[in-house]
Each structure stands twice: as structure tokens, then as C-alpha cells.
């Protein structure tokens, strides 16, 4: 059986490493150098929507610099698109300190808006046919994550936090923006207006979210689908949620969450939603609020999944879930790392039960986090069986659903 390589937790919070030389800033609106790599398979254009349209002015990172994405046009004119929501944890000054966020996750990317630079992305965004045979010729897009809010912050209001010690008060005049939802909307609108993403029903569009980006993709799935109604109607719109399926209702004594003293994941979700001034999955929230149900629980997989996929009571979207039943980040944050801890087995079995409802599934009882942006993990799978890479390709191509579950012993 192929072994899934366990990555250090610190590596799991960052879903891709950019290997790009800094480019000279020429023009604040559009920059390109004489030695541009434009046209090379591994050359990407950096786009900062806030610098292109006043309507996108609030699309900004925590520190107020413009949010960005990177775009590699198809070298063959393909109608296939892969759009990835980057992950990288979050902060709430409760379970995770904002002061400890690295600048790479709170500020704009170093490349100038409009510049073309060589960037190395892994897995499903790799431009090598050997690593990524199914998607290397697609239009590839990397939504850069710099809002620390699971892509869910819905306002441009400033919030004082431990990362802004200069702020005397949390009165909206000083602090960070948590504007992930705004950033995602502006990124997509920019792609559609300026960079060739059309909605005439011919494009095949695969949205992928990893880790915090997976939770963010869920939070923005309805907005993405609403912007692409013809692709959706033609069955050419698909969503891959990689490492973003967790359980609501978990509350285990003596197992504090992250660096807090809280043990209830529901309570943490409520506090996160308020701290980020967030909206989680829109359809889910709009259904639950009138019923007096907690909208913050729409961030949990066993709650959001039916809302995303049901054709009668939900959005009817095509969704593939990739999640370990012993996800490395979840078990670390919930202090479930001891193999002898009965709570760890309880979590695994609860995850196993919750994932029974998912027809497109890749899951294992091995300890790992995400697979989509790692060149080696992208090809993970059971020995002699369907790999994750093959499953994603089959999903994108509209083949019958398949569940790939391995190394996950039966539960009582």
C-alpha cells in the first residue's frame, strides 16, 4: 500500500511555496519587463484587482495592501480552468494569535500588478505534464490568501488585534481588514472581465480549495456558482474541498482547542464569525437563521455538505471531498495526537460516519492534511487503486461517482 507521507504541521499550514524572483515595480497599474517570461509554460501574471476598478477597491489583505491572484493562461487555448483558493490557517486571537501570522499571509504578494514572473506551484497547478497530466494545459489560477479569515470576512472594516499593537482601541479606525469574501468576489470578477473566463457554457471550471482555502471555497461556493450560471447549468462547474471537512458539536473535556481554554468547536466558530465579521456558506446561513439555528455552524462539513449538494434542499453543486479521518491539522488543534487517546478514535469514527453521505470521496485513516498542491501527495492513493489525481480528473470529466477509502479500520 502506498504510504501517505506525513508532513510537519508547520508545513501543512502553507499550501504552496512560491519560487519566484522579485520583479521591478514599473507602473502601479500594469508592469512588465523587457525580459518578461510571458509565454513560457511556468510564467504567471500577477493581478491585483483593487488597482483596476474602484468597485474592487476593498479587495485587500489584512494590512490594507491589494489582494492578488496569479494567472497562467492555457498555452493551447483550452476551455479548462482550474481556480485554487490558497490556504494557510487563520487567526482569531483566541485559538490562534494574529501577532504570530507571517507577513506572507497578511500582505500583498511582492510581484507588481500586471507583471509576468516564473512561479512554481505544485500538484494540480503544476505546469509539468509528468506531475499534472490532466490539467497542465488548462488555464491555471491561484487566489492568494492574505485575509486570515478562511476567506469569509464580509466587510472592509478595521479590527484591532494582537498583530496591530499600535491600535489603542478597537473602534474601526485602526487594525486589520478581514475581507476574504470581498477578495474572492473581486478575483473572480477580474478573471471574467479581463482575463478570458467566460460563461457561455463551453468552459469547464474546477474550483479547488485547500485547508483554510477549502473552508473558504465552501463559504464562497454559492457566489462562484451564481457568477457562472451557464457553466453550472451545463454541468461544467465542479468544486473540490481538500482538507476542509470538520465536525460540528465536538466538545471533548480536557482537549482545549489551539491555544485557548475552550473545548467546544461550535463556540469557537461563533467567536470566529463575529471576530472576522464573516459570512459562512450563504445558502446554509440564509436557511438556518430564520429557523433560529446557529449560522456559524455552516463552516462544518456535516452541516454545509447537504446545503451544497442537495438538488431539492440545497444548491445542487457537484462537490468532491478529500479529507483524512485523522486530519493532521484538526487532530493537532484538538489535541488528539496521542494514538492511545480514546477521544482520537472517537473523532475518527465520527468523521467516518459523517463522510458516509459523500459519493465523491477520497479519504484515509492516515495522518495527513491536504493533497492538491503537493507534487508527491497529489498522486497518493491505495496500492493498485485509484489515486487522488485520477479521482479529481474523473470528477472533472463527469464520470460516475467513486469513493476511495483506505487505511481506515471499521468502527464499532
How would you sum up this structure in a few lines?
Helix content is 23%, strand content 13%. By secondary structure, the protein is of the alpha/beta class.
Write the topology of this structure.
Elements lengths: L8 H4 L30 E5 L21 E4 L7 E6 L30 E3 L20 E5 L14 E2 L16 E2 L2 H15 L9 E7 L1 H16 L1 H5 L3 E6 L22 H12 L5 H7 L12 H9 L8 E5 L5 H6 L8 H13 L6 E4 L23 H9 L6 E4 L6
Parallel strand pairs: 3-5, 3-8, 8-9, 9-10, 10-11, 11-12
Antiparallel strand pairs: 1-2, 1-4, 2-5, 6-7
Helix pairs in contact: 2-3
What do these coordinates show?
This protein is an alpha/beta fold. It has one domain: 3-Layer(aba) Sandwich (Rossmann fold). It has 10 helices and 12 strands. It has helices at residues 9-12, 180-194, 212-227, 229-233, 265-276, 282-288, 301-309, 328-333, 342-354, 388-396; strands at residues 43-47, 69-72, 80-85, 116-118, 139-143, 158-159, 176-177, 204-210, 237-242, 318-322, 361-364, 403-406. The strands form 2 sheets. A 10-stranded mixed β-sheet has the order 4-1-2-5-3-8-9-10-11-12, with helices on both faces. Helix 10 (388-396) links the parallel strand 11 and strand 12 (403-406). Helix 2 crosses helix 3. The chain is globular. The two termini are 24 Å apart. Residues 1-34 have low confidence and may be disordered.
Amino acid at each position: 500500500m502506498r504510504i501517505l507521507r506525513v508532513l510537519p504541521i508547520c508545513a501543512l499550514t502553507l499550501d504552496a511555496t512560491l519560487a519566484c524572483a522579485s520583479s521591478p515595480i514599473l507602473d502601479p497599474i500594469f508592469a512588465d519587463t523587457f525580459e518578461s517570461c510571458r509565454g513560457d509554460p511556468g510564467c504567471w501574471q500577477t493581478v491585483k484587482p483593487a488597482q483596476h476598478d474602484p468597485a474592487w477597491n476593498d479587495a485587500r489583505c489584512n494590512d490594507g495592501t491589494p489582494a492578488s491572484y496569479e494567472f497562467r493562461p492555457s498555452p493551447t487555448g483550452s476551455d479548462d480552468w482550474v481556480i485554487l483558493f490558497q490556504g494557510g490557517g487563520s487567526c482569531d486571537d483566541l485559538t490562534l494569535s494574529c501577532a504570530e501570522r507571517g507577513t506572507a499571509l497578511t500582505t500583498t504578494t511582492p510581484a507588481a500588478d500586471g507583471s509576468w514572473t516564473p512561479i512554481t506551484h505544485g500538484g494540480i497547478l503544476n505546469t509539468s505534464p509528468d506531475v499534472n497530466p490532466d490539467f497542465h494545459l488548462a488555464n491555471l489560477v491561484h487566489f492568494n490568501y492574505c485575509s486570515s479569515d478562511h476567506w469569509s470576512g464580509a466587510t472592509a472594516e478595521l479590527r484591532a488585534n494582537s498583530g496591530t499593537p499600535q491600535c489603542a482601541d478597537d473602534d474601526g479606525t485602526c487594525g486589520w481588514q478581514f475581507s476574504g469574501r470581498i477578495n474572492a468576489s473581486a478575483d473572480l470578477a477580474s478573471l471574467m472581465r479581463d482575463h478570458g473566463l467566460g460563461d457561455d457554457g463551453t468552459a469547464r471550471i474546477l474550483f479547488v480549495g485547500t485547508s483554510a482555502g477549502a473552508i473558504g471555497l465552501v463559504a464562497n461556493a454559492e457566489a462562484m456558482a451564481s457568477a457562472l450560471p451557464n457553466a453550472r447549468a451545463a454541468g461544467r462547474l465542479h468544486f473540490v474541498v481538500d482538507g476542509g471537512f470538520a465536525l460540528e458539536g465536538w466538545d471533548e473535556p480536557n482537549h482545549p482547542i489551539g491555544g485557548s481554554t475552550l473545548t467546544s468547536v461550535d463556540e469557537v466558530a461563533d467567536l470566529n464569525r463575529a471576530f472576522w465579521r464573516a459570512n459562512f456558506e450563504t445558502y446554509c446561513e440564509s436557511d438556518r437563521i430564520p429557523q433560529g439555528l446557529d449560522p456559524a455552524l455552516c463552516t462544518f462539513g456535516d452541516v454545509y455538505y447537504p446545503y451544497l449538494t442537495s438538488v431539492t434542499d440545497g444548491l445542487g453543486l457537484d462537490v468532491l471531498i478529500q479529507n483524512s479521518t485523522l486530519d493532521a491539522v484538526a487532530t493537532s488543534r484538538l489535541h488528539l495526537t496521542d494514538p492511545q487517546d480514546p477521544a482520537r478514535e472517537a473523532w475518527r469514527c465520527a468523521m467516518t460516519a459523517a463522510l458516509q453521505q459523500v459519493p465523491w470521496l477520497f479519504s484515509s485513516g492516515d495522518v495527513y492534511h491536504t493533497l492538491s498542491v503537493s507534487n508527491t501527495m497529489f498522486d497518493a492513493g491505495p496500492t493498485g487503486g485509484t489515486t487522488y489525481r485520477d479521482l479529481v480528473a474523473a470528477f472533472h470529466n463527469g464520470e460516475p461517482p467513486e469513493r476511495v477509502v483506505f487505511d481506515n479500520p471499521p468502527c464499532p
